[in-house]
Amino acid sequence: MTGEIMRVAAAIFLATAVHGQSAHAEVVSSGPNGFHVRQSVQIVIPQDAAFSTFGQVSSWWNPEHTYGGKAENLSLSLQPGGCFCERFPTGGGIEHMRVTYVDPGKRLILTGSLGPLLYEATTGVLDMKFDRIAGGTKVTMDYKVSGFANGGADKLAPAVDAVLAEQFKRYREYARKPRPQN
What is the number of other CB atoms lying within 10 angstroms of the CB of residue 112? Predict the structure, then answer.
């Protein structure tokens, strides 16, 4: 049954992946037991704003890539031990990732397995870097996954990269929107 769930989840994951990736998306490396994907964007906002906007995941995450179909049920607590979680409307929920390192405005590291990787014996490290550049911030995301993925992690890497490229594009577009001044 678990293998069947994984095949269905992987099919959904692949079917809903968006192929319009940003210019700075790539599968850095992949093999049967792991992969490394990277996304990078430049945003004309300060580092602190880029960092805090990333934490507003319910405002920019594509609801098609949630378990309940509603991004407003997502939350991300930007503190050590914080949760990138999703509440289910009927109760319960899922911990997508756990925050393990926070350097506000500069770096955020989360651990966990996204999407169908949850159903496999894999673990992942999502490393977000927020670097100041002339006129704004360069945001780089590295997601490294290792372990046993039925059928091979290298087969999942392009789909994971495509989904994360879509999410990163949505994050960039949301971060670029003007915000009211306090």
Answer: 21
In DSSP notation, 133-179 reads: ETTEEEEEEEEEEEEE-TT-HHHHHHHHHHHHHHHHHHHHHHHHS--
Residue 170 CA to its chain's centroid (Å)? 11
Both tokens of 126, joined, read 């999502």
CA distance 16 to 67: 13
3-state secondary structure of 72: helix
Closest CA to 126 of 181, 163, 86, 176: 163
pLDDT at 21: 33
For 2-32, what is each residue's pLDDT tens digit? 343 343 344 334 333 333 333 467 999 999 9
Q: What does DSSP assign to residue 10?
A: H
Render pLDDT for 95-137 as a digit per residue (tens, 0 to 9): 999 999 999 999 999 999 998 899 999 999 999 999 999 999 9
pTM, two decimal places: 0.84
